[in-house]
Write a structure and sequence with these properties.
The complex is a heterodimer of chains A (655) and B (132). Chain A is built from 29 helices and 11 strands. With 655 residues, chain A is an alpha/beta fold. In chain A, the strands form 2 sheets. In chain A, strands 1-3-4-5-2-6-7-9 form an 8-stranded mixed beta sheet, sandwiched between helices. Chain A has a two-stranded antiparallel sheet with strand order 8-10. In chain A, strand 4 and strand 5 form a beta hairpin. Chain B is an alpha+beta fold and 132 residues long. Chain B has a domain of 83 residues: Roll (SH3 type barrels). In chain B, 11% of the residues lie in helices and 22% in strands. Classes of the chains: A alpha/beta (655), B alpha+beta (132). Strand 11 of chain A pairs antiparallel with strand 5 of chain B, so a sheet runs across the interface.
């Protein structure tokens, strides 16, 4: 099992590192785990939010192996792909290992040719060889190796097969002597422009090819190293050289490569009669337009039972009431009160005590819930179900001017909105991420809150639950629609690979869950503690009671709730479940009518998320965006609550 | 070389953007200027867009509409939807799902509407879906 540490440093070791590159879903991470020792450092690549994992190699402790984000093709189009491209362009490389999917050879070879032309020392690992064999594929890797002039090693990373051989090839990895001959006009352009391009770690020919192909990333890099006038001159020459050709040069380059790959494909033979369509049954049903939905309902029910029932119910009960409530907190309290001056003791164990409130909340309440949630999430992720869910729900999200990928942060938000805000990274454009963040901040109740809200609503009536659900969904739709109009940019149509579904592997699930929990402990818990400290200070200087007092008229006059509800809202910012619990307590004491309960639940659900998630928004998107989100969501929650109150009152419901 | 010998070249200079006519008459070579035509040589007459293809059929990629952005074009080609290649249509609802080699790809109908395909003649050429 690997353990993780998080830093922000540069990537390579002197003498260069071994970089794993490849398309998504090829098993890079599995191979990375096989090649490296226990401690994995995860760092943000210089100046980006893209994470890179690196660790010492097992086969040579002085060597570092780096796992790069998956790249579909070069030139890069996403932030993650740009990082990989930059790594290839500029980093000290001892060897590149392209990890390829052996059962999708055409795609693998297409990428291999691109990489090989870059002229960096390279080895090709054909991974998932077991699946290829099962499909009846026979690959002449010796032949491929000759024609690509790259060592080709079949591997099965999940079993460790071939890894030794791969490690042995690395020290002697050489730049491939591959020379694909392009159409004359392209070759002329290359030889004309090549001498005047700056030198860099990739071969001059590859750089010239990229430039000739109008690659944005290459241009950006050149703009950084060349005089503007020189670059302009090169662009002029490129334009002139491309004149007179029917097709853009980029197109000719791509065509030629495709033909070369078609030639390479003769090394791959399929035993006749093997058909893959029978191997996808479960995956096919999951995206079935009719059956996909009941399956989803089943999955959600299972998640609800495990996270809500076991996690939020059993585990939290054990930890919060028994362990913390019964043993730890009384002990800590008595210790603090005995040894510390009154104010300091109050700071730690008082009403807004750092330990009794902040830490207890983080460890006894949220931690067990997010642990169960992450376990389930990891299992679904590893099984490949999520890509199917993305495909199935795509239409739904199109209505919000997003695409199906938004389902992931949304589902994760039901566990922890803070973490979900981070997961918005999987959305391809900043525009999508902003819209998603708005939606998360507005209408997604995290597990802490959801349990209490559900409990309260079920105590009332089915009608109450229906009203709450309807209002929240309508608000999500409305805000999504509005955000799409306001945030500049176009909607991103969906394009995603549906990797074969399989039984989730326990080791993968545990590794990912542990990594997420570690992240949670290191990044989120401190935010809760900051929030608690803030509350303590505000309480001590009298601002907190003042806030509650000021809020009372708003809460009573506009929302029609009893004045005590004001405290629930103010507290709800620190601990999201406090908002709901505060109302729950009032309801249980008979102080709320059904109407008031529903209005209160709706308002508290739409209300801004907890302080931890707001701080994460600040970190991911900046202070300005966070301020906008808060100032927009806050009034909306109250507005909708008040309107709902008046509507329900007018119809005489639940009085 | 692509299969020029099997199909007639069809080049039309469209006045307003690209309109592929489902014209089975002889092709007219209007010279090197392709104008607004999609960047691909149309070696075959595209029957339809991928979006219109029926479930369960195999289709050959003829080319891409100019309206398809560079990013999506490059991604599609990287995944194996190369002009001349064959894919199988798995479903069209709620998203378009195709099988390329030994993997499945889900794409928005709006992207599929910009991918021009033909139904290959029986016994024609290699099939990408076979992993060949």
């Amino acid at each position: 099992m690997h353990s993780h540490g998080h830093t922000t440093t540069t990537v390579s070791a002197p003498g260069g590192s071994v970089f794993l590159v490849g398309q998504p879903n090829v098993g890079k991470s599995a191979l990375f785990n096989r090649l490296t020792r226990r401690y994995v450092a995860v760092s943000n690549y210089a100046g980006t939010t893209v994470e890179i994992a690196r660790a010492a190699a097992r086969f040579d402790p002085d060597r570092v192996v780096v796992d790069t984000p998956g790249v579909v093709t070069l030139p890069p189009h996403t932030d993650e792909e740009r990082v990989t491209a930059r790594v290839l362009l500029s980093e000290q490389v001892s060897a590149i290992v392209q990890v390829g999917d052996a059962k999708n050879m055409r795609r693998t070879l297409q990428f291999a040719v691109q990489l090989a032309e870059m002229g960096r020392p390279m080895v090709l690992a054909l991974n998932m060889m077991d699946e290829a064999r099962a499909l009846g594929l026979e690959i002449d890797h010796a032949g491929l190796s000759r024609r690509l002039s790259v060592a080709v090693v079949p591997t099965v990373a999940t079993m460790g097969e071939g890894v030794e051989r791969l490690a042995q090839c690395l020290p002697s990895a050489e730049p491939p002597r591959l020379h694909v001959l392009y159409p004359e006009v392209v070759e002329r352009a290359i030889s004309d422009l090549r001498p005047d391009l700056p030198s860099c770690s990739v071969s001059p020919r590859a750089l010239a090819l990229a430039f000739v192909s109008d690659d944005d990333e290459t241009e950006a890099w050149l703009a950084g190293v060349l005089d503007p006038s020189v670059l302009q001159g090169l662009r002029e020459r490129r334009r002139r050289l491309a004149e007179g050709t029917a097709k853009p040069l980029a197109e000719l380059v791509q065509r030629t490569r495709a033909e070369f790959v078609a030639g390479l494909m003769h090394a791959v033979r399929a035993r006749q009669g093997e058909r893959t369509r029978h191997r996808f049954p479960l995956g096919r049903v999951a995206t079935h337009p009719v059956w996909g939905w009941p399956i989803l309902a089943l999955v959600l029910f299972g998640v609800y039972e495990f996270v809500g029932g076991f996690g939020a119910g059993t585990l939290v009960g054990l930890l919060e009431k028994e362990l913390f409530g019964g043993y730890v907190n009384p002990w800590v309290t008595s210790l603090a009160q005995a040894w510390l001056p009154a104010l300091v003791a109050d700071f730690f164990v008082g009403e807004y005590g750092l330990w009794t409130m902040g830490m207890t909340y983080a460890l006894a309440l949220i931690f067990p819930i997010v642990t169960t949630f992450f376990l389930v999430f990891g299992a679904l992720e590893d099984s490949g179900y999520f890509s199917r869910l993305v495909a199935l729900s795509n239409r739904v999200f199109q209505a919000l001017s997003l695409n199906g990928k938004a389902v992931l942060p949304m589902v994760l938000g039901l566990g922890c909105v803070t973490m979900a805000t981070l997961t918005t990274r999987i959305l391809e454009t900043r525009r999508d991420r902003l819209i998603m963040t708005f939606l998360l901040a507005l209408g997604i109740p995290c597990s802490a809150q959801l349990g209490v809200v559900m409990g309260m609503l079920s105590m009332l009536s089915f009608g109450a639950t229906a009203i709450w659900t309807a209002v929240v969904l309508v608000m999500l739709g409305a805000v999504g629609w509005l955000a799409a109009r306001i945030v500049p940019g176009e909607a991103t149509p969906l394009l995603v690979e549906l990797a074969p579904m399989r039984l989730p592997q326990l080791s993968n699930v545990l590794t990912k869950t542990l990594a997420r929990l570690e992240w949670y402990l290191k990044e989120v818990v401190p935010l809760f503690l900051i929030g608690t400290t803030l509350m303590f200070v505000l309480h001590k200087v009298g601002v907190l009671p003042w806030l509650i007092e000021t809020g009372k008229p708003l809460v009573t006059g506009w929302l029609g709730l009893p004045p005590e509800a004001s405290a629930a809202f103010v507290m709800g910012f620190l601990r999201r479940d406090f908002g709901a619990t505060g109302l729950f307590v009032m309801g249980a004491a008979g102080k709320l009518t059904a109407l008031q309960a529903v209005v209160g639940m709706v308002a508290i659900t739409l209300f801004i998320p907890c302080i931890a998630s707001v701080l994460i928004v600040v970190r991911e998107f900046g202070l300005k965006v966070a301020a906008i989100v808060v100032t927009v969501v806050f009034p909306i929650a109250f507005l909708v609550g008040g309107v709902l109150f008046r509507i329900l009152r007018a119809t005489g419901w639940g009085a | 070389m692509p299969k020029l010998h099997r199909w007639q070249r069809l080049r039309r200079h469209a006045v307003r953007g690209l309109r592929i006519r489902n014209d089975r008459s002889r092709a007219l070579d209007v010279g090197a200027h392709l104008g607004n035509l999609a960047e691909e040589d149309l070696d075959e007459k595209p029957d339809m867009t991928l979006r219109e293809a029926s479930r369960g059929v195999q289709v050959r990629i003829a080319g891409f509409d100019v309206a398809l952005g560079a990013r999506h074009r490059e991604y599609l080609r990287a995944y194996g939807l190369e002009p001349g290649g064959t894919i199988e249509v798995i479903q069209q609802h709620p998203v378009t799902v195709v099988q390329v080699e030994h993997t499945e790809l889900a794409l928005d109908g709006r992207i599929a509407a910009h991918v021009l395909v033909t139904e290959p003649m029986p016994g024609a050429g290699e099939s990408v879906a076979d992993g060949h």
